[in-house]
Amino acid sequence: MTSRTLTLVAAVGRNGALGRDGHLLWQLPGDLPRFKALTQGRPLVMGRKTYESIGRALPGRRTIVVTRDARWVVPDAETASSLEEALALAGHDEVRCGGGGEIYALALPLADRLELTEVDDAPDADTWFPEIDRAQWREVRREEVAATQAHPGFAFVTYDRVLG
Questions:
Q1: Within the chain, which residues score under 70 in pLDDT?
Q2: Is residue 94 within 8 Å of residue 5, measured between CB atoms?
Q3: How far, in Å, CA of 126 to CA of 53, rounded?
Q4: How far apart are CA 107 and CA 105, in angstroms?
Q5: CA nearest 68: which of 48, 40, 41?
Q6: What are the beta bridge partners of residue 64?
Q7: What pLDDT was estimated at residue 163?
Q8: pLDDT for position 64
C-alpha cells in the first residue's frame, strides 16, 4: 500500500467542459487562489498541452509534465512518458493533478480526492473532464458562490473516494 494521495483539481462545467483552444473557460473569483492553495508546495502533474497553455511551471510547485514526445524538454519542469511514471517521479506525497482532459481521464481511477469548482454553465469546449461515477465519491465540503453579471454561479466542492 502506498502513502501517496492523488488529488485532481479542476473547474468543470455542468456538461464536463474544461477548456477550449488551450484556454480555461472561466475566470471566477477565488478559483485561481484556491488552485494555488491546493497545489502550492506539492508535486503537480499535468499534460504537455496544459503546460504549454500556461507557458511555464507554476512557482512553488514541483511540476511534472506527461508527454509522449521524448524530445520535449523544458528547463523548469520534469517530464514523464506516462502518468504512472509521473506518479513514480513524484514519490510518496500528496500529489496534485492539474489537467488536462486526457490526464484527468487517466488519473481519475487512481484519485483519492477531487477538488472541483463546479460551474453552473455548459459552454462549448474541446477539453472535457471525465464522467464521475457518483457512487464512488462522497461530497465532504461545498461552498456556493452566487452568479453575478460577471460570472455564472459556482461551488467549490471536495469529494473523497468511497472506500469499499
A1: 1-2, 164
A2: yes
A3: 14
A4: 6
A5: 48
A6: 45, 78
A7: 80
A8: 98
Please give the grid coordinates belonging to residue 44. 503537480
In whole angstroms, give the CA distance from residue 102 to residue 99: 7
Q: What separation in angstroms does the CA of 61 have from each of 15, 56, 131? A: 30, 11, 27
CB 42 within 8 A of CB 104: no
Residues 39/48/133/7 CA torsion (nearest 10 deg): -20
| CA angle at 150 for the pair 149 and 156, rounded to the nearest 5° | 110
Amino acid at 21: D
- What the chain holds in terms of domains, given with CATH numbers, is 5-147 (3.40.430.10)
CB burial of residue 126 (10 Å; 0-12, 13-18, 19+):
exposed
Asked, as a colleague might, if the bond just before 91 is cis with ω within 30 of 0, I would say no
